Amino acid sequence: MSVLKRAYKKIRYPLRWREFPQVIQIDTNNYCGPKYCGILCQYCYPQWKIVRKERQYAEMPIDMIELILKQAGQYGQRSMDLMDLFLNGDGLTEPRLPEIHRLSKKYLPDVPTQTFTNGIVFEGVENLLSLDRICFTISAHNRELYKRIHGGDKFLQALKTLRYVIDHKKPHQRVEVHCVLTKDNYRFAQDWWNFFGKEYPEVVRILSPLVASYDNLPSQNSLGGLNLDYLEDIVIKVAGREGRMWTRELIPDLKPCVLWDNMSVDVEGWILQCCNWSPPEDWHYGNIYVMEKEGYTLKDSWRKRLENKMQNKLCSSCNMKHPNWKMRLIC
Fold first, then answer.
1. Distance between CA atoms of 219 and 51, rounded to whole angstroms?
2. Residue 205 pairs with which residues in a beta bridge?
3. pLDDT tens digits, residue range 116-138?
């Protein structure tokens, strides 16, 4: 990046993120877990809630998805960097991916589309190839560790899907493989990094510390008392600056928290501050299924979020904030 471009980004960026989110995540469905993938990741709060029958499997109607994309295009052309078709489900369980991608390009032609997958449901894998970015979550580098982290003997299937996507992707497409650090795999972070670097040099490797919200018992159990500072140090040591999705010391441009740029819409229509898993009733900013009748838009939701200044139950207990987050909000 040239000196001029860096200077422009530094000047423009703090103003840009006030206009609209950079990233919108749409929960087009929440299909995953034992019913669809045959695994249940030990830290997966949404699927844990479904297994306990506290939530239900559902999918968002295509007209609601188009409404979000249309409003994102209307208000977010200058701000948005990514449309993420993932929140509580798996991209491989979404047969409508090509159609959703087409709609996204219709309203946001310059914004990349992305989804996450565990790579288990191989049927429909070609749908992933309609997107600009495909992210695999494979938090282990061998079968035995995979069974402990992901709750099933599906390691080889995940690698098979990953290889298929690599072999069939177009030059502009980006493939990532993510590892979420828990008490069971943090000691093997370097081994994981080396394995995927050697076997799949075409992919971008990402290490992520696991964060548990106030009611997220699966993640809390998966952490086993591990300190977030300690996990971040491991990520920095192993992955350097380029191989991490986030660490708090990387929060740029006076932003108060890691996910300040994000807005999420779950499958039930709740507009949320970010992608952190927690009961939406505690921290939502409206619902897309009723906002048209009330003349309420995503822009209004974003403005309400800025006015709230993170004074909600989730943010008040979240440790993903910058240490100086209050001063950043004031500024």
1. 15
2. 177
3. 999 999 999 999 999 999 999 99
Do the Cβ atoms of 71 and 298 come closer than 8 Å? Answer: yes
Q: Is the pTM of this model over 0.85?
A: yes
DSSP-derived secondary structure for 21-37 = -SEEEE-SB---HHHHT
Closest CA to 209 of 227, 193, 232: 232
Query: What is the spatial distance between Cα 181 and Cα 184, in angstroms, rounded to a whole number?
Result: 8
- 162 closest CA partner among 193, 130, 208, 116: 116
Per residue in 90-109, pLDDT (tens digit) is: 999 999 999 999 999 999 99
Closest Cα partner for 221 from 281, 120, 148?
Answer: 148
Rounded to a whole number of angstroms, the distance between the first and last alpha carbons of the chain is 28
List 25's β-bridge partners, or say none.
Answer: 84, 264
Percent with pLDDT over 90 in the chain: 66
pLDDT digits (tens, 9 = 90+) for 42-88: 999 999 999 999 999 999 999 999 999 999 999 998 889 999 999 89
Q: What are phi and psi of 318, to 5 degrees?
A: -85, 135
Query: 94: which 2 tokens?
Result: 């979404």
Going 276 to 282 to 286 to 287, the CA torsion angle's sign is: positive
Residue 122 CB neighbours (<10 A): 12
Q: Do 112 and 82 form a contact (C-beta atoms < 8 A)?
A: yes
> Which pLDDT does position 14 carry in this prediction?
54
Where are any strands of DSSP class E within the chain? 23-26, 82-84, 113-117, 133-137, 174-181, 204-209, 262-265, 270-272, 284-287
Please report the domains of the chain, with CATH numbers, ordered by start residue.
21-330 (3.20.20.70)
Exposed, middle or buried: residue 54 (CB in 10 Å: 0-12, 13-18, 19+)?
Answer: exposed
